[in-house]
Protein backbone atom coordinates (compact mmCIF):
# COMPACT_ATOMS: atom_id res chain seq x y z
CA UNK A 1 0.00 0.00 0.00
CA UNK A 2 2.60 2.57 1.07
CA UNK A 3 4.99 1.99 -1.87
CA UNK A 4 2.07 2.46 -4.28
CA UNK A 5 0.98 5.58 -2.42
CA UNK A 6 4.41 7.19 -2.63
CA UNK A 7 4.72 6.16 -6.28
CA UNK A 8 1.49 8.03 -7.04
CA UNK A 9 2.71 11.04 -5.04
CA UNK A 10 5.92 11.07 -7.08
CA UNK A 11 3.99 10.93 -10.33
CA UNK A 12 1.73 13.75 -9.17
CA UNK A 13 4.66 15.97 -8.24
CA UNK A 14 6.24 15.31 -11.62
CA UNK A 15 3.00 16.28 -13.38
CA UNK A 16 2.73 19.47 -11.31
CA UNK A 17 6.30 20.37 -12.22
CA UNK A 18 5.61 19.85 -15.92
CA UNK A 19 2.38 21.85 -15.73
CA UNK A 20 4.17 24.77 -14.11
CA UNK A 21 6.74 24.66 -16.90
CA UNK A 22 3.95 24.83 -19.48
CA UNK A 23 2.27 27.73 -17.69
CA UNK A 24 5.56 29.63 -17.51
CA UNK A 25 7.49 28.43 -20.58
CA UNK A 26 10.12 31.17 -20.32
CA UNK A 27 11.36 29.61 -17.07
CA UNK A 28 12.40 26.43 -18.90
CA UNK A 29 13.87 28.10 -21.98
CA UNK A 30 17.40 27.34 -20.81
CA UNK A 31 16.63 23.61 -20.91
CA UNK A 32 16.20 23.74 -24.69
CA UNK A 33 18.61 26.40 -25.95
CA UNK A 34 22.37 25.88 -25.71
CA UNK A 35 24.31 29.19 -25.49
CA UNK A 36 27.24 27.61 -27.35
CA UNK A 37 24.93 26.59 -30.20
CA UNK A 38 23.65 30.16 -30.48
CA UNK A 39 27.20 31.52 -30.55
CA UNK A 40 28.16 29.09 -33.33
CA UNK A 41 25.12 30.06 -35.39
CA UNK A 42 25.96 33.75 -35.06
CA UNK A 43 29.58 33.11 -36.06
CA UNK A 44 28.60 30.96 -39.05
CA UNK A 45 26.17 33.60 -40.27
CA UNK A 46 28.77 36.37 -39.93
CA UNK A 47 26.59 38.23 -37.43
CA UNK A 48 28.73 40.04 -34.87
CA UNK A 49 28.32 42.86 -32.36
CA UNK A 50 30.82 45.58 -33.23
CA UNK A 51 30.54 47.38 -29.90
CA UNK A 52 29.37 46.53 -26.43
CA UNK A 53 25.61 46.82 -26.07
CA UNK A 54 23.19 46.15 -23.26
CA UNK A 55 21.33 43.71 -25.49
CA UNK A 56 23.92 41.55 -27.34
CA UNK A 57 22.83 39.56 -30.38
CA UNK A 58 23.23 36.27 -28.48
CA UNK A 59 20.58 37.46 -26.04
CA UNK A 60 18.36 38.65 -28.88
CA UNK A 61 18.12 35.07 -30.16
CA UNK A 62 16.75 34.04 -26.77
CA UNK A 63 14.27 36.89 -27.03
CA UNK A 64 13.00 35.78 -30.44
CA UNK A 65 12.39 32.24 -29.18
CA UNK A 66 10.70 33.78 -26.14
CA UNK A 67 8.35 35.57 -28.52
CA UNK A 68 7.18 32.18 -29.76
CA UNK A 69 6.27 31.17 -26.21
CA UNK A 70 4.60 34.40 -25.11
CA UNK A 71 3.01 35.75 -28.27
CA UNK A 72 0.69 38.21 -26.53
CA UNK A 73 3.44 40.04 -24.67
CA UNK A 74 5.32 43.03 -26.15
CA UNK A 75 8.86 42.29 -27.22
CA UNK A 76 10.51 44.61 -24.69
CA UNK A 77 8.56 43.00 -21.82
CA UNK A 78 9.86 39.58 -22.85
CA UNK A 79 13.41 40.95 -22.73
CA UNK A 80 12.79 42.28 -19.23
CA UNK A 81 11.20 39.01 -18.06
CA UNK A 82 14.07 36.92 -19.39
CA UNK A 83 16.54 39.25 -17.65
CA UNK A 84 19.02 38.90 -20.52
CA UNK A 85 20.37 42.46 -20.58
CA UNK A 86 23.86 43.37 -19.48
CA UNK A 87 24.10 45.63 -16.38
CA UNK A 88 23.41 49.31 -16.96
CA UNK A 89 22.06 52.49 -15.43
CA UNK A 90 18.45 51.69 -16.28
CA UNK A 91 16.65 48.63 -14.91
CA UNK A 92 14.65 48.06 -18.11
CA UNK A 93 15.33 48.27 -21.82
CA UNK A 94 13.55 50.74 -24.10
CA UNK A 95 11.20 49.25 -26.74
CA UNK A 96 13.08 51.05 -29.53
CA UNK A 97 16.36 49.43 -28.45
CA UNK A 98 14.82 45.98 -28.74
CA UNK A 99 13.53 46.68 -32.26
CA UNK A 100 16.96 47.95 -33.33
CA UNK A 101 18.64 44.85 -31.88
CA UNK A 102 16.23 42.61 -33.75
CA UNK A 103 17.00 44.40 -37.02
CA UNK A 104 20.74 43.99 -36.43
CA UNK A 105 20.26 40.27 -35.84
CA UNK A 106 18.57 39.69 -39.21
CA UNK A 107 17.27 36.31 -40.35
CA UNK A 108 20.29 34.13 -41.22
CA UNK A 109 21.36 33.46 -37.62
CA UNK A 110 17.76 32.65 -36.65
CA UNK A 111 17.54 30.25 -39.62
CA UNK A 112 20.67 28.44 -38.46
CA UNK A 113 19.38 28.19 -34.89
CA UNK A 114 16.14 26.71 -36.24
CA UNK A 115 17.97 24.16 -38.40
CA UNK A 116 20.38 23.01 -35.70
CA UNK A 117 17.80 22.80 -32.92
CA UNK A 118 15.46 20.90 -35.26
CA UNK A 119 18.15 18.28 -35.76
CA UNK A 120 19.04 18.11 -32.06
CA UNK A 121 15.48 17.88 -30.77
CA UNK A 122 14.42 15.40 -33.44
CA UNK A 123 17.36 13.10 -32.65
CA UNK A 124 16.71 13.37 -28.91
CA UNK A 125 13.01 12.46 -29.17
CA UNK A 126 12.16 8.71 -28.99
CA UNK A 127 9.79 8.57 -31.98
CA UNK A 128 7.81 5.39 -32.72
CA UNK A 129 9.03 3.57 -35.83
CA UNK A 130 7.43 1.46 -38.54
CA UNK A 131 9.69 -1.36 -39.75
CA UNK A 132 12.67 0.64 -38.48
CA UNK A 133 11.64 3.83 -40.29
CA UNK A 134 10.69 7.22 -38.84
CA UNK A 135 7.45 8.53 -40.37
CA UNK A 136 7.75 12.00 -41.93
CA UNK A 137 5.65 14.11 -44.28
CA UNK A 138 6.21 17.28 -46.29
CA UNK A 139 3.61 19.86 -47.21
CA UNK A 140 3.45 23.48 -48.31
CA UNK A 141 1.61 26.60 -47.24
CA UNK A 142 1.55 30.26 -48.24
CA UNK A 143 0.22 33.42 -46.64
CA UNK A 144 -0.20 37.10 -47.34
CA UNK A 145 2.12 39.83 -46.05
CA UNK A 146 1.49 43.57 -45.58
CA UNK A 147 1.40 45.62 -48.77
CA UNK A 148 4.67 47.56 -48.41
CA UNK A 149 7.46 48.40 -50.88
CA UNK A 150 9.95 46.39 -48.78
CA UNK A 151 7.80 43.24 -48.84
CA UNK A 152 7.07 43.78 -52.52
CA UNK A 153 10.80 43.75 -53.26
CA UNK A 154 11.47 40.68 -51.11
CA UNK A 155 8.39 38.66 -52.12
CA UNK A 156 7.23 39.41 -55.70
CA UNK A 157 3.49 39.14 -56.24
CA UNK A 158 1.92 36.26 -58.06
CA UNK A 159 0.02 37.21 -61.21
CA UNK A 160 -3.14 35.63 -62.58
CA UNK A 161 -4.36 36.46 -66.09
CA UNK A 162 -1.99 39.42 -66.05
CA UNK A 163 -3.35 40.82 -62.79
CA UNK A 164 -1.02 40.96 -59.76
CA UNK A 165 -2.15 39.61 -56.40
CA UNK A 166 -3.47 42.10 -53.86
CA UNK A 167 -0.68 41.31 -51.39
CA UNK A 168 2.90 40.00 -51.49
CA UNK A 169 2.91 36.34 -50.47
CA UNK A 170 5.40 33.95 -48.88
CA UNK A 171 5.60 30.22 -49.62
CA UNK A 172 6.91 27.58 -47.21
CA UNK A 173 7.47 23.83 -47.36
CA UNK A 174 7.95 21.99 -44.06
CA UNK A 175 8.89 18.49 -43.05
CA UNK A 176 7.16 17.07 -39.96
CA UNK A 177 7.59 13.94 -37.84
CA UNK A 178 4.06 12.59 -37.82
CA UNK A 179 3.73 11.04 -34.36
CA UNK A 180 4.93 14.13 -32.47
CA UNK A 181 4.15 16.94 -34.98
CA UNK A 182 7.76 18.05 -34.50
CA UNK A 183 9.02 20.15 -37.41
CA UNK A 184 12.32 18.71 -38.61
CA UNK A 185 13.10 21.06 -41.51
CA UNK A 186 11.66 24.03 -43.41
CA UNK A 187 12.33 25.97 -46.60
CA UNK A 188 10.96 29.42 -47.47
CA UNK A 189 10.58 31.17 -50.79
CA UNK A 190 8.41 33.42 -52.92
CA UNK A 191 5.37 32.55 -54.99
CA UNK A 192 7.69 32.26 -57.98
CA UNK A 193 9.29 29.22 -56.33
CA UNK A 194 7.47 25.93 -56.88
CA UNK A 195 6.91 23.65 -53.90
CA UNK A 196 9.16 21.11 -55.61
CA UNK A 197 12.00 23.66 -55.67
CA UNK A 198 11.58 24.25 -51.95
CA UNK A 199 11.28 20.51 -51.30
CA UNK A 200 14.69 20.03 -52.95
CA UNK A 201 16.19 22.06 -50.09
CA UNK A 202 14.88 19.48 -47.61
CA UNK A 203 16.64 16.51 -49.21
CA UNK A 204 19.95 16.94 -47.39
CA UNK A 205 18.19 17.68 -44.09
CA UNK A 206 16.26 14.41 -44.18
CA UNK A 207 17.76 11.70 -41.98
CA UNK A 208 18.49 8.08 -42.76
CA UNK A 209 15.98 5.30 -42.04
CA UNK A 210 12.97 7.50 -42.77
CA UNK A 211 9.76 7.28 -44.78
CA UNK A 212 8.49 10.61 -46.14
CA UNK A 213 4.85 10.77 -47.22
CA UNK A 214 4.14 13.31 -49.97
CA UNK A 215 1.02 14.50 -51.75
CA UNK A 216 0.67 14.26 -55.53
CA UNK A 217 1.95 17.81 -56.03
CA UNK A 218 5.51 16.60 -55.37
CA UNK A 219 5.41 13.93 -58.08
CA UNK A 220 8.76 14.26 -59.86
CA UNK A 221 10.87 11.20 -60.63
CA UNK A 222 14.00 13.34 -60.39
CA UNK A 223 13.07 14.63 -56.94
CA UNK A 224 12.01 11.19 -55.69
CA UNK A 225 15.15 9.52 -57.03
CA UNK A 226 17.39 12.17 -55.45
CA UNK A 227 15.52 11.74 -52.16
CA UNK A 228 16.32 8.02 -52.10
CA UNK A 229 19.97 8.41 -53.11
CA UNK A 230 20.81 11.13 -50.56
CA UNK A 231 21.39 8.63 -47.72
CA UNK A 232 20.67 5.19 -46.32
CA UNK A 233 17.07 3.94 -46.43
CA UNK A 234 15.52 7.32 -47.18
CA UNK A 235 12.19 6.15 -48.52
CA UNK A 236 9.15 7.97 -49.89
CA UNK A 237 5.51 7.25 -50.73
CA UNK A 238 3.33 9.29 -53.09
CA UNK A 239 0.14 8.83 -55.16
CA UNK A 240 0.86 7.78 -58.73
CA UNK A 241 0.36 10.61 -61.19
CA UNK A 242 -2.79 10.24 -63.28
CA UNK A 243 -1.89 8.94 -66.71
CA UNK A 244 1.64 7.91 -65.68
CA UNK A 245 3.07 5.14 -67.88
CA UNK A 246 4.81 2.19 -66.26
CA UNK A 247 5.83 -1.40 -66.95
CA UNK A 248 5.09 -4.19 -64.48
CA UNK A 249 8.23 -6.18 -63.68
CA UNK A 250 6.98 -8.61 -61.04
CA UNK A 251 3.92 -9.27 -58.91
CA UNK A 252 4.67 -9.12 -55.17
CA UNK A 253 1.16 -9.77 -53.91
CA UNK A 254 -2.46 -8.80 -54.40
CA UNK A 255 -2.48 -5.24 -55.73
CA UNK A 256 1.29 -5.10 -55.17
CA UNK A 257 3.74 -4.88 -58.09
CA UNK A 258 7.33 -3.96 -58.81
CA UNK A 259 7.24 -1.49 -61.71
CA UNK A 260 9.56 0.45 -63.99
CA UNK A 261 8.94 4.07 -65.00
CA UNK A 262 10.75 5.87 -67.81
CA UNK A 263 12.21 9.33 -67.20
CA UNK A 264 12.09 12.27 -69.60
CA UNK A 265 15.14 13.96 -71.20
CA UNK A 266 14.17 17.19 -69.44
CA UNK A 267 14.19 15.47 -66.04
CA UNK A 268 17.56 13.82 -66.73
CA UNK A 269 19.01 17.20 -67.72
CA UNK A 270 17.82 18.80 -64.49
CA UNK A 271 18.81 15.84 -62.30
CA UNK A 272 22.29 14.56 -63.35
CA UNK A 273 22.01 11.43 -61.19
CA UNK A 274 18.74 10.35 -62.78
CA UNK A 275 18.89 7.37 -65.16
CA UNK A 276 16.61 6.41 -68.04
CA UNK A 277 14.37 4.39 -65.72
CA UNK A 278 13.26 4.35 -62.09
CA UNK A 279 12.25 1.13 -60.34
CA UNK A 280 9.57 1.47 -57.67
CA UNK A 281 6.76 -0.43 -55.98
CA UNK A 282 3.14 0.20 -56.91
CA UNK A 283 0.33 -0.54 -54.46
CA UNK A 284 -3.32 -0.54 -55.50
CA UNK A 285 -5.72 -0.05 -52.60
CA UNK A 286 -9.43 0.66 -52.30
CA UNK A 287 -10.63 3.18 -49.73
CA UNK A 288 -14.35 3.96 -49.36
CA UNK A 289 -15.00 2.55 -52.80
CA UNK A 290 -12.26 4.60 -54.44
CA UNK A 291 -9.23 2.95 -56.06
CA UNK A 292 -5.91 4.59 -55.17
CA UNK A 293 -2.47 3.86 -56.63
CA UNK A 294 0.51 4.52 -54.35
CA UNK A 295 4.10 4.60 -55.57
CA UNK A 296 6.93 3.98 -53.12
CA UNK A 297 10.66 3.33 -52.97
CA UNK A 298 10.19 0.48 -50.45
CA UNK A 299 10.76 -2.34 -52.94
CA UNK A 300 11.78 -4.98 -50.37
CA UNK A 301 8.58 -7.02 -49.96
CA UNK A 302 10.07 -9.13 -47.15
CA UNK A 303 10.96 -6.15 -44.95
CA UNK A 304 7.97 -3.98 -45.87
CA UNK A 305 4.72 -6.03 -45.95
CA UNK A 306 2.30 -4.76 -48.58
CA UNK A 307 -0.74 -5.19 -46.33
CA UNK A 308 0.67 -2.82 -43.72
CA UNK A 309 1.98 -0.34 -46.28
CA UNK A 310 -1.50 0.18 -47.71
CA UNK A 311 -2.61 1.85 -44.46
CA UNK A 312 0.49 4.01 -44.02
CA UNK A 313 -0.43 6.80 -46.38
CA UNK A 314 -3.47 7.79 -44.32
CA UNK A 315 -1.03 9.09 -41.68
CA UNK A 316 -0.05 11.92 -44.04
CA UNK A 317 -3.13 13.73 -42.74
CA UNK A 318 -1.22 14.34 -39.50
CA UNK A 319 0.79 17.12 -41.15
CA UNK A 320 -2.48 18.84 -42.06
CA UNK A 321 -3.55 18.67 -38.42
CA UNK A 322 -0.17 19.97 -37.33
CA UNK A 323 -0.40 22.79 -39.84
CA UNK A 324 -3.87 23.90 -38.77
CA UNK A 325 -2.75 26.01 -35.83
CA UNK A 326 0.36 27.35 -37.50
CA UNK A 327 -1.58 28.44 -40.61
CA UNK A 328 -4.16 30.34 -38.55
CA UNK A 329 -1.46 31.89 -36.39
CA UNK A 330 0.74 33.09 -39.24
CA UNK A 331 -2.13 34.64 -41.17
CA UNK A 332 -2.93 36.77 -38.12
CA UNK A 333 0.50 37.44 -36.67
CA UNK A 334 2.44 38.68 -39.71
CA UNK A 335 0.17 41.65 -40.38
CA UNK A 336 2.50 44.08 -38.59
CA UNK A 337 5.75 43.10 -40.39
CA UNK A 338 6.66 45.59 -43.08
CA UNK A 339 10.18 44.39 -43.99
CA UNK A 340 11.11 41.20 -45.81
CA UNK A 341 14.10 40.39 -43.59
CA UNK A 342 12.03 40.80 -40.42
CA UNK A 343 9.33 38.58 -41.91
CA UNK A 344 11.85 35.83 -42.71
CA UNK A 345 13.09 35.97 -39.11
CA UNK A 346 9.47 35.75 -37.92
CA UNK A 347 8.83 32.66 -40.03
CA UNK A 348 11.69 30.79 -38.36
CA UNK A 349 10.56 32.12 -34.98
CA UNK A 350 7.06 30.65 -35.44
CA UNK A 351 8.58 27.44 -36.81
CA UNK A 352 10.64 27.14 -33.62
CA UNK A 353 7.43 27.44 -31.62
CA UNK A 354 5.72 24.63 -33.54
CA UNK A 355 8.87 22.53 -33.39
CA UNK A 356 9.24 22.03 -29.70
CA UNK A 357 7.34 24.25 -27.36
TrEMBL record:
| Domain Transposase IS4 N-terminal stretches | 24-115
Q: Where is each Transposase IS4-like domain found?
A: 132-331
Sorted alphabetically, the Gene Ontology BP terms of this entry are:
DNA transposition
Pfam families recorded for this chain? DDE_Tnp_1, Nterm_IS4
SUPFAM superfamilies reported in the protein's UniProt record: Ribonuclease H-like (SSF53098)
For this UniProt entry, the molecular function terms from Gene Ontology, in alphabetical order, are: DNA binding; transposase activity
Q: What is this protein called?
A: Transposase DDE domain protein
Amino acid sequence: MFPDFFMHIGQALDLVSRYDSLRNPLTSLGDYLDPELISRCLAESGTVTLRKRRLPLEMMVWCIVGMALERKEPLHQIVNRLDIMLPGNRPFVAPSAVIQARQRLGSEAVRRVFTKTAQLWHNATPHPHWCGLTLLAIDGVFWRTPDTPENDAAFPRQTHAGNPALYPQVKMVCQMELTSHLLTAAAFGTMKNSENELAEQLIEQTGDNTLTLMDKGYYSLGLLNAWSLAGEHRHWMIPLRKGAQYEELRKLGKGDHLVKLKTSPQARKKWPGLGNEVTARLLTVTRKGKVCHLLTSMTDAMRFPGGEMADLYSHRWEIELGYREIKLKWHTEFGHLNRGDMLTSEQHRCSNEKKKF
